[in-house]
Amino acid sequence: MKLFTTTSNLIEQMVAWRRDFHQYPETGWTEFRTASIIAHELHKLGLHVQIGKEVVSEERMGVPSDDELAVYYENAKSNGGYVKYMEKMVGGYTGVVATIKGKKTGPSIAFRFDMDALDILENDEITHFPKQFDFRSKYAGKMHACGHDAHSAIGIGLAQVLANNVDQIEGTIKIIFQPAEEGVRGAKSMVAAGVVDDVDYFLGMHVGINVPLGTVIAGADGFLATTKIDAKFTGKAAHAGAEPEKGKNALLAAASAILGLHTITQHSDGASRINVGTCISGDGRNIVPAHASLKLETRGENNSVHTYVHEQALSVLEGASKMYGTELTYEIVGEAKTCASSEELIDLVGLAAKDINGVEEVLLRSKFAGGSEDATYMMDQVQRQGGLATYAIFGTTLAAGHHHEKFDIDEAVFPIILNTWLETIERIYQYQYQYN
């Protein structure tokens, strides 16, 4: 007999939550509405809920300005956010953690769900499913184009099943709702706040990732370590025709840096990536540019390769700045590690998924096709403590690729994910009995 069961009504409610979140997408550190609704639903279940600075440290990366945060706060307030919870998130501390303590002794299990959206203008064609069924984004230039709206809804659904079956829980189960995964900013600050310090088993997940509906990958590997850097060159303006020698050309410094960054020598120990995504500079055609800003990222197949690429990138930036007599400032606005899923937990998730209705194929291990993920901070912390961690992929049919204006998912994946996680809890209990 199964410890935990779900209902069709709950799946319908999860779809409703997902479509609601989809209409009000909030990017990293601005998830006031999303997080407050999650907190409200968790409180209704009678769970112990921690919010804001209780679960997010002040060591955050890539936080919007106070003025931007104030605008997003007011947007959330005007569109159904719960102010009594939002008040604890002022300043962008938008994390939420629910803890469910069972009536029996047992392990500490944590599930992580990310909440944030992307700066993308959602497609407005009638053939686009969210447009056709009236849940397209209401915020111009922002969109849930990766599936975190679905993740958030699944997290609430999981909490509801567990809250209704506390007598069956052995030990503690934490459900972590993380802000700012895009740009890999949020997990590190939640780890610093101690949210996984007592966790024995950690489970992260993602929908899609170009895996078909009915396929479950029990453990993803191959996450690329990464650093996101915002760099600024400050020079000196001058008349480009009359006195060019009196200027210090920040644009040329940035251009030289871009070329240098993309010619960093590869490392023999593994693959690396580097990309300059934006370059903004100058005020006019007849003015020596006094400022230039770059947004770039470095990635490495392992931590040592990434350290090499990152340090080389900083040297290139500094060298280009000196060559043109400018001043260089830079900020690290996102970071993630590389981390491998734990073999024992991969096996448990694989066993759990194989008998779930709708699952056609279970792959125990596969490389993460999405590049980098900051859940690796949580995975690494748990493994360093002697615990087990894995990151699963739940395939679903996509209308377009991740981070695309036409992105949408097949919600038929919802019961697959929910039931797999519930079965995984039971498998963990059985594993505890056998080996502890």
Automatic annotation (TrEMBL):
Q: Name one GO biological process term.
A: folic acid catabolic process
The record places domain Peptidase M20 dimerisation at 231-317
**Per the annotation, how and in what number is the cofactor bound?**
The Mn(2+) ion enhances activity.
Q: Where does Mn(2+) bind?
A: C146, H148, E182, H206, H403
Report the SUPFAM superfamilies cross-referenced here: Bacterial exopeptidase dimerisation domain (SSF55031), Zn-dependent exopeptidases (SSF53187)
Cellular component per GO?
A: cytoplasm
Q: What is the required cofactor set for this protein?
A: Mn(2+)
Q: Which UniProt keywords apply?
A: Hydrolase, Manganese, Metal-binding
Q: Which Gene3D superfamilies match?
A: Zn peptidases
An example of a GO molecular function for this protein is: para-aminobenzoyl-glutamate hydrolase activity
Cite the Pfam families for this sequence: M20_dimer, Peptidase_M20
Protein name (record) = Indole-3-acetyl-L-aspartic acid hydrolase
